[in-house]
Design a protein that fits this description.
mainly alpha, 3-stranded antiparallel sheet, two-stranded antiparallel ribbon, globular
Length: 266
Amino acid sequence: MGARSMCRRGPRRSSSAIGVIWLGARLLTPTSPTLNGAPEAVSDHIVNVAEFDFGITRLAGEFHQDWRNYADTPSGMVHVWISELGEPRTEKVSLLLEDVRRILGSALSGASLEVLWNACAPSACPSGLFGGGGRGWLLQVEDIARTWLAERPGFDCGVSGCRHAPLPGVFERWIKEAALSGGLVQEGVSGPDFSAAWHEIAETVCPELALRVAVRCLLSSNGSIPAHIYGEMDRQGAIYGYGDFLVSAVEYLVDTEPPESPSQEL
């Protein structure tokens, strides 16, 4: 089939624009240079959809305090969200299914999944109230996405392994420090539990997904971000093939105040 380009990027990322070829539910991608010149595998599934958030993190963002105005049940809300997705809808639903299957295929406990969901949902809408805890809820989401995709003949619902480059160590350390200090997660979510669950996502599931979880968590908590940490997030988002508006959704949270200089005794 014909080649497609990655989602639009601004001039600051034009040098790393990467071509992709859509094959059913798969993408074949070349490698892109990292900041130090070493080649890294680029996403094999992000295409035309990464301008803004996507997948399970985008779905979590839909469960704000007014979600019951749109659906009677959580599963009903998933159906509503899918029905209102813009094109390319099939690719967007496949990304949701891929996220969910990667998570369910990991060793993350139901309790850890609940912590991650509650940190990402804007109103701390607890997945435990949806029936079956964190894993039970994701199984419901998986079934809805799989059933929807199964109605599209010839579409491959399989999930490929995660080949994304690791997150910078400085960013991972900041996540732990910010979570433990209470400045990262919204009220009602345990910082230490979130930190442990987030690092497990980053190390054992997919670092690209972990970056989206961090962005969604910050949007929900309105926590502040040091400028150098935001810079790391933005650069990593470019490596992952994001468009201009996924990471920049939290740019307004960047702390522009310079750090206080230590006082000097005269």
